[in-house]
Amino acid sequence: MLKTYTYPRYEYRKPPEIGQAADPGKTRRVPLVVVGAGPVGLAAALDGAQRGLPVIVLDEDNTVSIGSRGVCYAKRAIEIFDRLGRGHDHGASAADGGLGQRIVDKGVTWNVGRTFHGEREVFSFNLLPESGHRRPGMVNLQQYWLEQYLVERAEQQPGVELRWLNKVVQVTPEERAGERFVTLQVETADGTYKLQADWLVVADGARSGIRRQLGLDIEGKVFQDRFLIADIVLERELFPADRTERRFWFEPTFFGGQSALMHREADNVWRIDFQLGWDVDPEEEKKPEKVIPRVRAALDGQGFKDVAFELEWASVYAFQCRRMKNFRHGRVLFVGDAAHQVSPFGARGANSGVQDTDNLMWKLALVSKGLAPEALLDTYDSERTEAADENILNSTRATDFMTPKTKVSKLFRQAVLSLADETPCGRALVNSGRLSVPTLHRDSPLSTPDSEPFGGWMAPGAPADDAPWPPSQGGGRSGDRSDERGRAWLLDHLGDGFVLMLFRDEPTAGERAAVGQLAALPVPVRTLLVSPTGAAAERYDARAGTCYLMRPDQIVAARWRSLDAAAVQLALERAVGHGLVQAFRRPATTQRGTEAA
């Protein structure tokens, strides 16, 4: 029981399959099953249902996560939650009280982080140094609140069926009469039943039972260091709301360990992390009589001796940087911690998992509807393993800097920290956890390379930058321009399909003809008129006539200085996977690999 949160208990309902005949020919077949009702699994379910894939979500528990767990959600993840909260309403505003807005309203927004060596501040950073963005660099919110909001959204979403206290005990990929599917055996209080799924998305966490049962590999490194998380409830605010910030210490004077971290969550809960070292007893270290004196010393060391607190939750964890070799195994697709794990410093866990589903579900929907070849799903594997490698690299570098194990690395860190307040080059080398940013898929086979010079970073493979929405003089959506007037932000209008952003106030006759040709394609392309002046044009290096083809996950697929319908059609065919050679596909394998606990 937490002081600031009451855990919901979701209702178990007897599955309709219980008691049905065991004849395999009568096993119910469904388009999509998601295993795991954490943030990543629920994001996958919402996205799939909004794209027309009915989904059953199976979870062996009947509540949200115990303890605050993940707390930091980056700007890109909040933008994805905005879309999942809107459904297919291209143009819903922040005033609609949607999923993203609920998270922002409940959570603690921040952009500034400060890093100290002892009592000396060595540098600070700003995650969002420029204005004109709807969402902040980071929102802190305890994971149980996020999961609750996602469950409530899923309960409202047609096409999502939540099954609580349904434990998957066996997964069997099968092929019968030329059809491939996955058979699941599920245990409940009322007995066992089977389901057949065209596709299975596995989001059952770092200790994935499905991954183990299939004998699949996960490789990487478990760092020999442990950290204590202490969530405390303070009797009063420490800082004004406009000074919310992340504080990190190397060798803090209030604690004998190598590092500590402190930042605020919702409901005036604060998280403090203490680096303990490897040779400690995790169960002993999280006892209140061990945790409370450390917290008291941390508060006293910052001048808050008069602030009382209560211990809300404590846990001890070790850093891990690991991933599966492949995230796709035939009709079984792994997402989130089931596929990859990184240290919590940097907020790369849930954020990267939500981006996994953002990358996967539009591809899965197109393949399921016969609008794209199955090879398109191999680009989920290639793009998201690239992102995992980037996250693991940054997380490993941060961990090595924070927990140096050799004499040379300790000397290097001391030299860097000594230089940090004197030179910019020293500050650039300080690593207290590079924070989550989206991966730029520069070499994606789905992207069409530039044929003309562009400035800025909105190149093919980059996630869309948001901007205030000054609608063009002609409005927004081609053919229904009045529907787009008066809305607030660019990403609201991109929605979740293929979009041609045309930077024009009014299209020319030739552009109107090209738009008409694109509207008749099997995979629809919606045209969005954007003003050729203003923040959006500046961020996209656009002038009158510039156009961008955006993927359904709001990643740039291609861009041109002028609209040519044939060029757009070729880029679209590339973006949906037509022309991907068979050699590109990584082999689906269920060979047993080595796996750490």
Write up this protein.
A hairpin with an 8-residue loop joins strand 13 and strand 14. Mean pLDDT is 87; it is low at 88-96, 473-486 and 581-597. The strands form four sheets. Strands 1, 2, 8, 9, 10, 11, 17 and 18 form an eight-stranded mixed sheet that branches. The protein is globular. The longest helix is centred in the middle third of the chain and has 27 residues, at 376-402. It starts with 28 loop residues before the first strand and ends in a 22-residue tail after the last helix. It folds into three domains: 29-108 and 128-219 and 321-390, FAD/NAD(P)-binding domain (3-Layer(bba) Sandwich), CATH 3.50.50.60; 221-320, D-Amino Acid Oxidase, subunit A, domain 2 (D-Amino Acid Oxidase, Chain A, domain 2), CATH 3.30.9.10; 440-590, Glutaredoxin. The protein contains 15 helices and 23 strands. By secondary structure, it is an alpha+beta fold.
